Amino acid sequence: MKLYPIESGNFKLDGGAMFGVVPKSLWQRTNPADSNNMIDIAARCLLIENGNKLILVDTGMGNKQSDKFFGYYYLWGNNNIDNSLKQFGFHRDDITDVFMTHLHFDHCGGSVQWNKNKTGYEPAFKNAHFWSNKDHWKWATQPNNREKASFLKENILPMEESGQLKFTSLPDTDILKNSELGFDLFFANGHTDKQMIPMINYKGKTICFMADLLPTAGHIPLPFVMGYDTRPLLTLDEKEKFLNLAANNNYYLFLEHDAHNEIITVKHTDKGVRLNNVYTCDEIFN
Hints:
There is one protein chain. By secondary structure, this protein is of the alpha/beta class. The protein is built from nine helices and 15 strands. It has helices at 15-19, 24-27, 67-71, 81-87, 105-108, 134-141, 153-161, 232-249, 281-285, and strands at residues 2-14, 38-50, 53-57, 97-99, 112-114, 121-123, 129-132, 165-167, 175-176, 184-188, 195-202, 205-209, 252-254, 263-269, 272-279. It has a seven-stranded mixed β-sheet with strand order 9-10-11-12-13-14-15. A hairpin with a 2-residue loop joins strand 11 and strand 12. It is globular and about 55 Å long.
């Protein structure tokens, strides 16, 4: 098995929204804001090469939305999926499976693109299966009013219409062991219903793709919960459980949204679980 970080693009989000009820005087120590109160956000995806499988975890925002839409998110930098794949010798047509932690636009928007004549949409990875789970798919396609703006039908429905959509099994407990794609999945319901956190056994290490359970290293303290979460008290419990597992077992936490910290470990302290070490992907994957 080989792992590769795939940078799909960077953007900015309101720091207050990213940290909920936590005062700016606290969160700006780790995530400094600009003059508009916006903080740097990455959309760092993960490519898993395992035998004849080439699995891409999440796909970022994509590029099919309007300039007005992207204007809300202050895109910055030159990263995109195609250039990042090319850096490691791959093309999007090589991807066999696209695994989506959840279907918010910044995680799955790149899974669908305009067709050649811009008359409709098509899968952006023509040879891949697209993976979600039945409960989250229903949640996303019949959205509540709070999340409706994050579940964009043009990002979601074309995957089903193409016939390339597949669903993982659902667990009896929080963790689905050895899922259909060969890695464990931790299911979390605080941010959105049935978000999936891949836990990948790699060279004797457990690499956890944290998605929105832990967006940045600055979110480690338990009360530091995003205002975007639909069930913040549940996020508190889920994050506490996962961070204790991570500290007990020295998990390596791959941070999808942290523009400045790629992989971290955590440790137990008198104040609870806190940051231990910071690594680059090169240090852990090579």
